[in-house]
Amino acid sequence: MGQCVTKCKNPSSSLGSKNGDKDPSGKAHCKKGGVIGGAGGGVYKEDAGPVCTKSAIDLLANGTKKMEEESRTTPSHLEESRKESAPDGEEFSVPRIEVLFGCYKDELDDAILEEGMERFCNDLCVDPAEFRVLVLAWKFQAATMCKFTRKEFVEGCKALRADSLEGICARFPCMLLEARTEDNFKDLYRFTFQFGLDSEEGQRSLHRDIAIALWRLVFTQDSPAILECWLDFLTENPSGVKGISRDTWNMFLNFTQVIGPDLSNYSEDEAWPSLFDTFVDWVVERRKREEESRCTQALTGSFETAEGRASP
What ranges does the record give for the region Disordered, renumbered to this chain (predicted)? Predict the structure, then answer.
């Protein structure tokens, strides 16, 4: 992820837990979780990374003193070239985006890393483990968890037409609505798989526990009826699966859209991943056991009632 922090890949740490335990393989994880940074609501430490002399909100609300001085010394035609206009007439400034990036940038790397992400999320009043942060990472097209490069941050803010914390916060409702449309959600869903990979290690599949955590997260707004059953299956792991491939991840979205919650229209003859065959067999067996259990309880209750009536 960079020179200064370890990759956030433990689902309990990378998606909101304050624990920084290592996984059974001994791989180190960052101690503060979140989709893009540290645990939400963490206390800001003054020695953690570069610090703005004022709060980021005060610093950027209407332009810094530095920006005011710059506007007096910069020819008007050059100043205008550094601004862009949104369709509604609202202007955003690329230099102000750069200033905002600098407030959270790492001292040694030209990117926002773990400590900066924690402060960034805290200043945005969002929990790093929540869906809004995943959507923000999607809009920024972030390649790596716990990191925003300068280009990702600047281009992402330009796409949002926001150059301040208030501007980014104001875009959240629109971003959430945008993520609900079929095509956009499909794009977000596929982005989430790539986002969860450890690109530095050349991963091609998601660790099972990471995939479970990301499935819960990406389906925050619209959870398919079969999701919890699917995640129970993966947690119990009767098939011994260790990783989720890109094909399995992508096909599960199709599965939720095509196959009904009762699984009655599922066919093994169709081109589903073999893991889905195992899942359907597991569900059928579990439902059979649950039905037998209900019948046994009903018979036991009836027998006890009959005995009670027969007693003097």
Answer: 1-28, 63-90
The answer to whether residue 308 is domain-embedded is no
Pairing of strands 83-85, 91-93: antiparallel
Query: pLDDT 10s digit of each residue in the chain, 312 long?
Result: 333 323 444 444 444 333 334 344 434 333 345 665 443 333 333 343 444 434 444 444 444 344 444 434 334 433 444 455 444 445 789 999 999 999 999 999 999 999 999 999 999 999 998 999 999 999 999 998 889 999 999 999 999 999 999 999 999 999 999 999 999 999 999 999 999 998 777 889 999 999 999 999 999 999 999 999 999 999 999 889 999 999 999 999 999 999 998 999 999 888 899 999 999 999 999 988 887 777 777 666 655 565 556 555
The domain that holds 72 is classified in CATH as 1.10.238.10
Rounded CA separation 284/267 (Å): 13
- 100 Rama sector, left if φ>0, alpha if ψ -120 to 50, beta otherwise: alpha
**Do the beta carbons of residue 190 and residue 254 sit within 8 Å?**
no
Residue 183 lies in a domain: no
Task: List C-alpha distances in Å: 37 to 74, 113, 121, 135, 145.
Answer: 37, 7, 7, 14, 7
- Two structure tokens written together for 274: 């073999």
Question: How far apart, in whole angstroms, are the C-alpha atoms of residue 169 and residue 220?
Answer: 19
**Domain-ending residue, one of 162, 178, 194:** 178
Q: Looking at the structure, do residues 88 and 231 belong to the same domain, yes or no? A: no
Instruction: Quote the radius of gyration of the chain (alpha carbons, Å).
Output: 25
